[in-house]
């Protein structure tokens, strides 16, 4: 993190208990998104924040909301909460709740998490006691509301974090149904890394005269990450990956694969090759995912092999490399992936392995980020055929990637809205 703003946290007017917690956490200066968002949120203004992961956006909403709780003490509503934060994945939910807990360590605040994949018993018990803050994934929360176990009619503030990812994962309807149970005169905050039309529509329907804070233009990649691509035959990807991971000086790496079965295969291959690795994807149980993340965070394993959706909550400052074993089928996922490195002011490397079939997805990524990746071609597997390929990308389904017969593409392919939606739905299913 390299805060550039001159403002201090004390200048922002945060309460002494929060300032002490920030001191404990070693936060010296607000990051730009914090310096810009906190004053609006302290005033109670609705806010649209356009920021990528790694910019410090969690504290940018957690700190002013905790301040407002401290300024207006009142009993936590039974079966509900004063603040609700919605986030796309269990990992991100846990990470945001950890942030709230750490920043409120000198303040009596009750925080709980709600997500699927685990028993609801503890979640229901926490709700019965009444909470100040609920951090939740939309699916399980809606489930509890529909069972009559959660009542958010007393809610004061709603935060939607990583809203673009929530929509990509098909949470538009659950969010709509949750919002329908909230008071109309609430305070609403929405953060998104990208600004597709669907997010503009969501902002228009949920936010009232929002202040807008934008840290990096949407869909641009972080400057301090060196990005390169290796063109090769699909059959050489594992060898190339291993060789990259054996480069001297490499620290921890996150390897992204297109599908869960490929993540397992790659993880087994790396382990058999003497590299400590864990897989993180939607087919693993909550316990397995937490153990994998903890082992990675503690430095016990060098590599995490992940699919897109499972990887959203990975916040480990020591990741030096992101390696894309496969291109993502959705170009915006590339931006999220590489944001797993270059964190906390460090530099990072993003290396993409591209075969002939995934070449079209690389074109889409390069259009999304507005630049071409540096080509690393001085390696033994370099394949010009992959570099110049005009094959159609793989068709994603429930099973393995289907091989599609090569076809000449005469003109630049433009994705239709239907194709984009189908790709999104397939990605949500396969990650
Ligand atoms: P986020 O974008 O909220 O995921 O934060 C990214 C990383 O930056 C996390 O590891 C935070 O602990 C860290 N961070 C956030 N704000 C600050 C700050 N003002 N000073 C130092 N580190 C920070």
UniProtKB/TrEMBL annotation:
Keywords: ATP-binding, Cytoplasm, Helicase, Hydrolase, Nucleotide-binding
GO BP annotations listed: response to temperature stimulus; ribosome assembly
SUPFAM superfamilies (alphabetical): P-loop containing nucleoside triphosphate hydrolases
One Pfam assignment: DEAD
Composition-biased stretches (Basic and acidic residues): 408-417
Chain intervals for the UniProt region annotation (Disordered): 389-417
GO CC list: cytosol
Catalytic reaction equation(s): ATP + H2O = ADP + phosphate + H(+)
This enzyme's EC code(s): 3.6.4.13
Keyword field contains Cell division: no
GO MF annotations in UniProt: ATP binding; hydrolase activity; nucleic acid binding; RNA helicase activity
Enzyme class at the top of the EC tree: hydrolase
UniProt domain Helicase ATP-binding: residue ranges: 38-213
Keyword Hydrolase: yes
Domain Helicase C-terminal: 237-386
Family (UniProt): Belongs to the DEAD box helicase family.
Official protein name in the record: DEAD-box ATP-dependent RNA helicase RhpA
Organism: Gluconobacter kanchanaburiensis NBRC 103587
